[in-house]
Amino acid sequence: MSQQHRRKHREVVVVAGVRTPMGKANGCLREFTAVDLGAMAMRELLARSPVCADDLDAVIVGNVIQPSEAANIARVVALNAGVPKRVPAHTVHRNCASGMQAVTDAAEKVAAGRAEIVVAGGIESMTHAPLLFHDDFRAALVQWNRAKSWSDRLAAAKAMLRSPWRPRMALLEGLTDPTVGLNMGQTAEVLAREFAITRREQDEFALRSHQLADQAWQQGFFEQEVMHLFPPPSFSAVHRDEGIRPAQSMEALGKLKPVFDKPLGTVTAGNSSQITDGAAMLLVTHRERAEAEGWPILGFLHDWAYAGCDPARMGLGPVFATHKVLAGRGLQLADIRFMEINEAFAAQVLACLKAMDSREFAEKHLGLSQPLGMPEMSSLNVHGGAIAMGHPVGMTGARLVLRLMRTLSEQGGGLGVATLCIGGGQGGAVLLGSEPWTS
Amino acid sequence: MDVVSLVRENERARLVFSREDKPVNVLDEICLQQLESCLDQLEADPPKVLVLESAISGCFIAGADVDAIAAIRDAAQATRLAERGQGLCRRLEALTSVSIAVVRGACMGGGLELAMACDHLLAVEDKKTSLALPEIKLGIHPGFGGCVRLPKRVGWVRAVDMILAGRSVDAKRAARIGLADLTAPPERIGDAVDWLAARGKVQRGRAGPWWLYLPFVRWWFFYEVERKATSRFQHLDLEQAYPAIPATVKLLKEIVGLSDGVAYAREAESLGRLVTTPTCKNLVRVFHLGQSLKRQDAVKRGQASADNIRNTAVFGAGVMGSGIAWVAARTTDVDLHDITPEALERGMRSLGRLARRDAKRLRRIRPALDDSNLEGADVVIEAVIEELEAKQALWKEVEAKVSKDCLLLTNTSSLSVTAMQEEARVPARMAGLHFFNPAPKMPLVEVIVGGQSSGEVVDTVAALAVAWGKYPIVVRDCPGFLVNRCLMPYMVAALRLLESGQKPEHVDGALKHYGMPMGAIELADKVGLDICHHVGVHLSEAFGERFAMPAWFGELVKAGMLGEKSGKGFYHWSGGRRGELNPELHRFLKLPEPPEGDAAAAVHEVPAMSDQEICDACLVPMLVEALQCLDEELVESAVHVDAAMIFGIGFPPFRGGLLRDFAQWDREKLVACIQRLGLEVPGNIGVLDEFV
Q1: B366 contacts A237? CB cut-off 8 A
Q2: At B33, which helix (H) or strand (E)?
Q3: What is the CATH number of the domain that holds B604?
Q4: What are the structural domain ranges in chain A?
Q5: Residues B101-140: pLDDT tens digits?
Q6: Which of B476, B508, B531 is at the close of a domain?
Q7: What is the pLDDT of residues B215-228, one digit of tens each?
């Protein structure tokens, strides 16, 4: 990288973005591995964008359930997608924000002049979350391999028989916070209790998500953003996200039983995000380059922030991260036209809204005398969210950025914040817009 | 000229094969002689270790001299040749030295048999290393003891498969199945030889598996082997068409459990019989035809630019388009374009079936709905609907987006490339690349030279076709090009036979018995009757009567009976399989009524023509048209016609080619036959003299 590129504060832009449809786990995309999904999305991105793969400087991909057969999945995907061998690639992991982390890492590289053009995105195939042997079983297998005599072997066989045979599910273990011993759904139950969010409120929010998503598809909003896939074994075209239920109703939602806190909880499968497969890819570069080359600018990445919070209340992460990113730029929530808060759980989004609106919360946690302010419902997740479409954990962050940029450019500009909660007690937020920054 | 040289270094000796007059090492007369004299020296003073190696890169020993084999006229002579080779291998085996064959590059037939006679076979990991006993493809079987030695290394099950299919294996696989004792990268050859030398001499025991020595199991095993090997040829008289297949199965069955000496004798004797068959000569000729197409000048000239082609865009995801995408994915990334998801769905589904054998290749194919990535394409192939306007409109769109060096190829089978060029902005880069259905399977492509196509473009396309594993023939642009133009009179003749009262099954049966992969009527159903009709009309406009489709054929098309794709044409079709004759055919065509028909009185059964008569009636028009094409100089060389028929429509290889087959006829009889069929005797019929 020549010295002249190392200027501070290059304006970071996204010039192209594409995502796969999201398929339910063990659903229509079950035959695709995470590598397949990522490679198809990345190849499609490069095919659609005016940028030539030879000009890339780096590939950064977020992925949570990193497949054991593709260590550093970013590299495997890049090579499969036709990215030249000389372009380095690395994988990032910040749990549910991995896809966002990839985008902001790319933005940091570009802003610092360490790269010109970067492919960043997120991939997840939750279908292919592995099943694991219990640790005792592993130990017994090792014992068997090391056995020299028949008596050794007998002992090893006994140990094998005694150890638990049932496989551990990496997906469930991954969705559980080891430090507080709660799984993600249980943290949502905590928020539902503390912020007094009723089952009805949650179901209404879930219904809204399905309706908005369905509406957006019908209006053709996703037509361009989402590529077609032809997954085996049937090779039938998949374009629409599989999880959306146009006929979703309060009655149907009401019939579901709580999953995480039986029998009194309020978080159900219907008002939680869906377990899904998908990939999203963005091309990140800086404004000067894009303008010089005549590439259309999809949106500007103005700023980003990550913030930590209580792991048992990880769902509030967006409040902290949003506050941090806005404060950094001297903005109020009222300055934001559109907002995407990832719908990990309806209870969690609603809790964020209440926390943002609460003076007490602002005083106690954010050191503010005034509440942060609450986004209008008409500006929040206006094309539906993860409850309807799904939350392929590693992908979502990238998808939120892409979605919000397209929303802003379609709605005639302004600022937007894409934010999500992160398992383990963090929040991530990206401040973006469809015009250059004017302070 | 030193073809085999013996180099002694202390305790070791190296036997080096090299060649100045040929690009590869072959075991011809001079090589065998020198090898024998080297063995004399070695026997007199055996070194501790003997290493066999080649001084030619990319080739160990490519086998026996194919032309010498084809030239043998006498079974005893062939047997003697085999015995001589066997003797060489046995002397090598009996040396007290530890012998090691360092196999790098092609190791075929006699070369592999020689390598297997060594104590150790070292397969060098190189892209070009491939080991095979491909004799069956030339209508013979291994004759230097390969039938005895291969089973000892890889076991009977694999050996039978390798010998009967002529399949080749690479270095890694050779080691896995036991054919090679060790693989090593080129840098480690020295260490590997030392390591193998330390293992000493090897005595190979009886070939496994044990159960093959149980008489009943052996009978069953070889019964299955024979069934599998012959299933493709059930309509043929195998003893006449491909005698090597039953002979090889019989030989292998016999030699299980025989002592080596007796087994070698049987092998030599059987080989003698096979070498003198016309099939062997014809298959050797077909082998040369293929080689001549792959090594033609155009291919050599276009090699460099074809190597730079990395991205292919295919338009139209129909049967042809998706098939072409599969072929192109062999060396390039492919974007498969179509306008509706449903069309792409069908295309991807058919690719999915192919991908069962090669899943990796499918990942190189990207279905695309939005014309994206045309900027990056090095070659665009269109396989959209056969309408000039549609194709020209597509080219207009494509030309606006692609780079200036991008090749534009059309897969049209009936439209004129020259006409397409008229609307093009840069007509020189446009040419035809005509695949045959099914594209992944049929080895021929016609490279069509339009009026304005540049020479470099044609060369590049020919070389690209070779890179994709196809045999290209360069054809001047004219209606029907070469293959379809020759095929049409054949099909029309078959239809006329139906008109005269012959049964479709009978006509098809006779042609299949001749060796055609399917009958003319079946073929019409497979291609689609509408397409046949379209091509027929088109060609008769250009060339007149002889291509005219019968009127009832047009009615058949109008009634929606289009062949396989509509479920019924002449026959019923389901799931790609031919069923019964379509009874509705009676409405269009006076067929002999089935005997139980109520109009029993009206039956006027036409006497069935003999198979020979049917074949003459169908194939002679094809021959006449082929000669006409030669007269018009559609192709560079007359042998290309034979190659085109074999690789394009599956003309039986054991007959050596269309012209070759008829060249063997008595010329007067042929002329009489042509006249009897009401055709004009071509003025250049003397061309056939070159093919005797």
Answers
A1: no
A2: helix B29-44
A3: 1.10.1040.50
A4: 182-220+302-433
A5: 999 999 999 999 999 999 999 999 999 999 999 999 999 9
A6: B476
A7: 999 999 999 999 99
Chain A environment of B368 (Cβ under 8 Å): 47
Structure tokens belonging to residue B98: 């530890």
Q: CB B372 to CB A48 under 8 A? A: yes
Contact A52 B376 (CB under 8 A): yes
Token pair, residue B640, equals: 């290309």
Give the residue from B520, B530, B497 showing the smallest Cα distance to B607: B497
Contact A228 B344 (CB under 8 A): yes
Domain span including residue B538: 483-691
- Whichever domain contains B169, its CATH number is 3.90.226.10
Q: Among the options A96, A210, A286, A302, which is catalytic? A: A96
Is B136 in the same domain as B8?
A: yes
Q: Computed from CA positions of residues B327, B333, B339, B340, in that sequence, does the dihedral angle turn out positive or negative?
A: positive
**Nearest in space to B132 (alpha carbons), one of B221, B51, B60, B204:** B60
Interface subset of B 339-358, CB within 8 angstroms of A:
341-342, 344-345, 348-349, 351-352, 355
Instruction: State mean pLDDT over B588-615.
Output: 66
pTM here?
A: 0.90
What integer pLDDT is reported at residue B605 of this predicted model?
64
User: How far from B247 is each of B60, B141, B266, B340, B511, CA to CA, in Å?
Assistant: 29, 9, 11, 53, 25
Same domain, B124 and B147: yes
Annotated catalytic residue A391? yes
Position B330 in a domain: yes
Rounded Cα–Cα distance for residues A328 and A326 (Å): 5
Rounded Cα distance between A225 and A400, Å, is 12
Chain B residue nearest residue A77, CA to CA: B363
Residue-averaged pLDDT of chain A: 94
**H-only helix segments in A89-220:** 98-111, 135-146, 150-162, 170-174, 184-194, 199-218
For domain A182-220+302-433, give the CATH superfamily.
Thiolase/Chalcone synthase (3.40.47.10)
**If interface means Cβ-Cβ distance under 8 Å, which residues of chain A face chain B?**
36, 39-40, 43-44, 46-48, 50, 52, 80, 82, 228, 230, 232-237, 239
The domain boundary residue, chosen from B443, B476, B509: B476
Instruction: Determine the longest span between alpha carbons in chain B, in angstroms.
Output: 95
Is residue A360's pLDDT more than 70? yes
Residues of chain A with Cβ-Cβ distance to B352 below 8 Å are 232-233, 235
Q: Measured between alpha carbons, how far is B591 from B500 in angstroms, rounded to an integer?
A: 9
Residue B508 lies in a domain: yes
What DSSP letter does each residue of B441-499 carry, written as one string?
T--EEEEEE-TT--HHHHHHHHHHHHHTT-EEEEEE--TTTTHHHHHHHHHHHHHHHHH
> Half-sphere exposure (CA, 13 Å, Cβ side) for A270?
24
In this complex, is the C-beta atom of B363 within 8 Å of any C-beta atom belonging to chain A? yes
C-alpha distances in Å from residue B408, one per residue of B45, B435, B460: 65, 15, 12
Tens digit of each residue's pLDDT (9 = 90 or more) over B421-453 = 999 999 999 999 999 988 999 999 999 999 999
Structure tokens at A52: 């030539």
Joined tokens for residue A37 = 């999904």
C-alpha span between B188 and B502 (Å, rounded): 68
Q: Would residue A96 show up in a list of annotated catalytic residues for this protein? A: yes
